[in-house]
Amino acid sequence: MTLHPPWTPTDAVGEALHVLRMSGTFYCRSELTAPWGFTLPAMPGCLWFHVVTAGGCLLEVGHGARELGEGDLVLVPRGDGHVLRSDAAASAPSILAIPHEMPDSRYAVLRHGGGGAPATMVCGAVRFDHPAARTLVGLLPGLIHVPVSPLTDRLRDTLRLIALEVEELRPGGEAVITRLADVLVIQAIRTWMATDAAARTGWLGALADPQIGRALALVHRDPARDWSVAALAAEVAMSRSAFAARFTALVGEPAMAYVTRWRMHVALDRLAGGDTVARIAADLGYRSEAAFSRAFTRVVGEPPSAARRALAAREDLAQWAAAG
């Protein structure tokens, strides 16, 4: 007789991708003619993406360079500064110094270059709002290059839709491109997770584990629940000792340490959104504001009031940089 697990199977990897809710910081449609080039600034906390819809270019990030061709997609997941240019000899001024049109506050059109061979691109920087999304993005490599191949048919379908919108920008085209770009980023990350061995280790590998992945998903969904190792083990039909050992082996820390750290991820998000410490403490299951503050300080390294001031200062700096 086949025994089935006493729960509906949960795709924890799918849940992690589901919370990749993006807030667009900057989108740009670029019409370029060789020689051309520009430097994109570092944007910590954001993910840069570039889609080559026609022509080709050279991307330089860190100490490496990568040739991109028509239909290629590249992600710079941690927002590192980088350079795009038609060839290695082309000058690359700051993107902020090149005139561009702004059809709205989130979308720009850039026309730049010396009149030679044409190239078109859609570029953007997006920010992720959910703690699980930021954890996932933090584990991605510094550069993800998805060239055109038979393995990327779905990506190519999205790329074709973006290219069509770029060729003839109709009413509402900006909204279509930005939404397609969000889909494209998720597809690219999913492709990387399915094809790169690095995605099958650590936290990402734990997400894919049928039992530990379900336990992680339960914590992510309901961090305020009075979790214990025994309660999590029971949810995934494992013995307490087997669950504790497997969780630590796959995730890299004990289950209850992960639960506490996850709560503090959520708390930081709530602090940035303006919630009071008392409300956050209550919503995360702490019996008192003092107990929450002690746990927060232990995990984060500073009390909630100091963290709130730091988050506000960082947001002010990001807005200043965007306005510049």
Automatic annotation (TrEMBL):
Superkingdom of the organism of origin: Bacteria
Limits of the HTH araC/xylS-type domain: 213-310
Keywords from the named record: DNA-binding, Transcription, Transcription regulation
PROSITE patterns: HTH_ARAC_FAMILY_1, HTH_ARAC_FAMILY_2
SUPFAM superfamilies: Homeodomain-like
Keyword S-adenosyl-L-methionine recorded: no
InterPro entries reported in the protein's UniProt record: AraC_lig, AraC_XylS_family_regulators, Homeodomain-like_sf, HTH_AraC, HTH_AraC-typ_CS
Name this polypeptide is given: AraC family transcriptional regulator
